[in-house]
Amino acid sequence: MYVSPVREPLINGEKSYKDITDDVIAPIHSKPGKFWYLGIGISSTVMLFGFAMIAYSIWFGIGTWGVNRTIGWGWSITNFVWWVGIGHAGTFISAILLLFRQKWRTSINRAAEAMTIIAVMCAGLFPLIHMGRLPLGFFIFPYPNTRELWVNFNSPLLWDVFAISTYLLVSLLFWYMGLLPDLGTIRDRMKTVWKKKAYNFLSFGWKGSARHWHRHESMSLILAGLAAPLVLSVHTIVSFDFATSVIPGWHTTIFPPYFVSGAVFSGFAMVLTLMIVTRKALNLEKYITVGHIESMNKVIIATGSVVGIAYITELFMAWYSGVEYERYAFVNRALGPYAWAYWIMMTCNVISPQLLWIKKLRRSVGFTFVLSIFINIGMWFERFVIVVTSLSRDYLPSSWTMYKPTWVEVAIFLGTFGLFFTLFFLFIRVFPVIAIAEVKSIARSSAKKFIGKSVRNDQPEKH
Amino acid sequence: MSEENKYWHILDEFEPVEDARTKETLDVPVDASSRRNFLKLLGLGTASAELIASCKRPVEKAIPYFIKPEEISPGKAAYYASSYFNQNEFSSVLVKVRDNRPIKLEPNPKSVINPSGTSGKVQASVLDVYNVNRFNHPTKSGEKIDWATADQEIVTQLRELANQGDNIILVTPTIISPSTQKLIAEFCTEFNAEWQVYDAIAMDGYREANRRVYGNAVLPEYHFDKAECIVSIGCDFLGTWLSPVEFSAQYAKRRDLRKGTHDLNRHYQVEAGMSLTGSNADIRIRADKNEYGRVVTYIYNHLAAKNGLPFIESKPPTAELAENLSGLLSDLVENKGKALVVCGDNNPEYQVIVNGINQMLKSNGTTITWNNNYNHFQGTEKSIDTILKENIGAIVLWDVNPVYNHPSADKVKAAIEKAKLSVTLSSLPDETSDLCDYVLPSPSFMESWDDAEYKKGVVSVLQPTLHKLFDVRQAQETLLSWLGNDTVWREYIKNNWLANYYLLQTTTLDKDRFWVNVVRSGEFVYDVKSTLLTYNFDEVKKALVTVSKEKVVDGFVIELVENINIGTGHGALNPWLQECPDPVTRIAWDNYASIAPSIARQMGIKNGDVIKVGALTIPAFVQPGQADHTVSVAVGYGRTIGIPKELVTGVNAYPLSLIQNGFRLNSVVGVSIEKTGEFEKLPLVQGHQSQEGRPLAREATLKEWKHDHHAGNEMHEVAEHHATSLYPGHEYKGHKWAMAIDLSKCTGCSACVLACNTENNIPVVGKKEVLAVHEMAWIRIDRYYSGEEDNPEVVRQPVMCQHCDNAPCENVCPVAATNHSSEGLNQMAYNRCIGTRYCNNNCPYKVRRFNWLDYTGADSIPNNRYDPANLTVDLSRMRHNPDVTVRAKGVIEKCSFCVQRIQEKKLNAKLEGRQLYDGELQSACQQACSLNAIVFGDVNNPESEVAQMMKDPRNYHLLEEIHTLPSVGYLTKIRNIS
Lengths: 463, 978
Fold this sequence. Notes:
With 463 residues, chain A is mainly alpha-helical. Chain A has one domain (12-442): Up-down Bundle (Formate dehydrogenase/DMSO reductase fold). Chain A contains 16 helices and no strands. A seven-stranded mixed beta sheet of chain B has the order 5-4-16-15-14-6-7, sandwiched between helices. In chain B, strands 27-20-24-21-23-22-28 form a seven-stranded mixed beta sheet. A four-stranded parallel beta sheet of chain B has the order 11-10-9-12. Chain B contains 31 helices and 40 strands. Chain B starts with 22 loop residues before the first helix and ends with a strand. Chains A and B meet through helix 2, helix 6 and helix 11 of A and strand 31, helix 26, helix 27 and strand 35 of B.
């Protein structure tokens, strides 16, 4: 089989199958460096502090936050939507790009999925802790009870419960399903008995038999089929929290597509932020190439532009609707006391990604890293603008007020970063950051070693 | 404990087996080693240990009645007619008593003074009874003492001092109780004592002016309902002046387009600071406080010229002011005999001129009558002068606090300290009682017997509804004891009544029956002969000359005003009153210096900038409509003693007040304003002043309304026309509760807010939490300004839960904690609420309130209570309405349309086998509203008033264009401006 050199290789360097395994598994085999210890030390400390603040706010009440009579949701729901958005890239990459047969996804899907799961866990924390009576939070589940109480299926918040939990579950299964062959590979390479046993257990006794592969492949496809609509539905449902309300600035039919593209936008930005660091730290530059970064940047331009158009459409509709409350809400966003947040959002989300039309920038690792941070910030502010600015000035001017987070809210948000990075640091030590089996499956067609050469279609080399 | 049983078949067979065990064996547990027993004991032990350790049961204090008192049915309220009198505020009330605890005051519908409502202060006074700071036993120099010893020591000293010729002074506030007056007179004769009456805010200037002009030093009755044209010069008659609740009711009668005449009265207000009354005026004219004299002179001269009467040439007010006053003057001339001019300044010269004006307008006999004169506000400056001038032997201070509220407080303090004997007879510690040798605490009015003649010819009774909570004694009982009189105070009152009032009635001959009837109905009315007035024109002339010679002093004028809730300072001790925002500024928990926007801009002062104005260092508040050179500051703040630390707030402005010719003027001239550079955030509950052109509080002028009854409300038809839905609406087969609010009548007095607080156990959150925008009021009075900031028009709108038929809150609650009742109520199931606050976000009216912290102590997590006002201790908890759940931390609450009242009345009607009749059921806010601006009822009953109001062309719903279908309707505000 001859592999055309037209396409850029997805695996650089003369990497053989064995090299792939060696490179990816290296961090699991070797002892962690001091940066890893430093990283997990800091992030777990921040996480514990965040947890302490969660306990504090459950104990004393939501009054320890800056939310108030008029603005019932502040940082908590902003963070929730933001984290859920972050959690979109992984499943998008592994499910939707799988269905579209995008080969470049193989190098990044594992880490992105891990990120998704961790981000959804961080996100899921917020709707829980923002409740006034968390100990009674179980009321939200439709369980049979002697009091014949039932949940309100009209409430988008209830849909959220199902949407988020389903998404978390399917993402987790999908991710773990993908891990099985790699776990088997790691087990085979482990020298220590208990580690071998542990990985054997984790891999469910993966043997690599044809039957295993067959089941694995078909299950992956089924899960991909399940996960793909979930990618769209989760943020659609999160957007319903706002779209079905009566608050000007929330009550918008454009929200579902706008939220989904925004989520993919922010998710890809977060994947870039993480992967640019990870590929450097774990010496995976050959696998996560500039070409990968460029591909992701293209997704960012696409989704970023959708988001930009959505912002402008919102403005147009506010004017075109002729509803004075709606008009005021948008004038207030752009020119009101929270205008600074709006303009941060506009700059970061609409203007900055347009720079990616320039190929040089698109392929610049440093620029992409800075830009991805910008987008992360911008997308956080998007949610802040939607949640806080809309609430701060709604219908009756008598109730208008301002919101400022307290240090408790700030600490909880930082705590979720702590949680995110703690789990991510553990992840890169325990599981392969790149899906070994999947990368190998494209090696023959897309690795530099094979490109432009006629390769005998025989047995792959032993690894 | 062996399990082996021996069965016996016939009785003979049954013989008690003798215990074969010896003494020694008895001590050893039988079969202790049995496995089964061991397990049993282990189980029992573990279970009981767990029970004891884990479930700490609170001590139950409820003890059932052995013999049930006749009047008390558990779960049913009893009502007792009584009266409230405090700091010159009077109200005839019904005390609602549940399980021996008075929990609410309601207006006495049979009263001739204020049958339709009460003030907010009266509503909040329940909390005064359960104030944790009350004295609970008599003390001598801070040490506990028993009553007998105290009495003996004091009487001995009093007699000694009297014998030595030292003077004995009794200082009281105005006492309107005829029986107490008699008793005090007896006390004064016995001990050769002087009785001085001292009021924190005096109206002796009015009495003096009436003495000069009419030879009658009384406060006449005013009839605002009979005036076509009301001119008020700095007089806050709807808020704090003389008898505001009565005047509000009168005022509302002439603001009623549904029942009253279609010619509304026209109300002009000439004033410096924006008062509650001024904010309701049809035409408000801005004038500095030091221009009032010139304004009254100008009005007088103008009218005199028109009437061909002599007048004195005087400097007219500024050209601008003269122009503004022209409409007022022509209206006065036109409405001769149907006009009323009042002035809120205690300066007798001004009042003399106002008397002259009213004389020319022929107001006497129509809008002012001199029969049922007011008996309150009897205090004079002479009282404190006496204390300051003479060497005092003994001073007895009865519920007065001159050390706090007199301008020469330091001298008063020194005088009290120097007195050989000082005794205080008040129920709460204050700055004055702190100095006294003896503290002989008195109970609150709800634990006391008393009577009151607020207006001549209307005498009412106060009866106790609560057993004395502490080791306290009424001041009257103390005097009786000092006099060696064994009569029980209640009998003393009764005897006095039988001697004086029994003869004035013809309904019953039986003396006891007469007394019982009086106590039952609360009030007794007798005829008063009208007094002939002789008008003394010379006095008016003299006053005109004096006033025209008044010098104009450069600089700013500080105007001391009363906050409608805090009053003279008594309200500062009541957390409910502190937390109820001022209806004009919408600031709670603080006082501030109101300055004009133009001055603020000129000096670069923003809200909360601390300024030095005169002797005060106080945060500034930029008040639209404030006169340029007047700074208004509320008195009553800055209390330090007898008040928990958390409630200490504001600055004491009393030291500023000026005594001129023996009359207290609540203003200082010639002061300057300086910025200090400091900043203090003001607890402002409404930050935005404008409606932003939204049709929220709709209004029209009277002329427009007469032309088209839909004036100002054209939006309503459009909204009704477009109202459509894909979904079927609710069906209400029985009742459908609704409320209608007439914006033309609402003055914003906030009585409804306080009534709601009391009725619904709404927590107090304190200043810090108000600053964090965490206030909890279920009903709020929105206030919007329109027009120019120099002198804006004001509109008010009470907003509570609108009980929408298409409620945005209901469909977003994930656990269905808020839902719709079959009678149209939007209900909250507190138990079910998990506190997502989604409902609050989605409420367009923002009327839902969240329990941010454990304000009430109802939370299940320990040690997290947030209760700055000490309202969760056992004593304060006695105030709770047992029909309303006390909400826990983390749940949403809101107006329930007083569902507990609906339920109670429905059950009553059901028991009596009848339909509810309209008006039987009143919400707490409606009941307290003396203006009848709020009407509650069943719209399914087409006869009901609320159903009628809903059909009024003025009716609209707040935000009706978003199709929430509220059950609350508003009637447009109609202004009588040309």
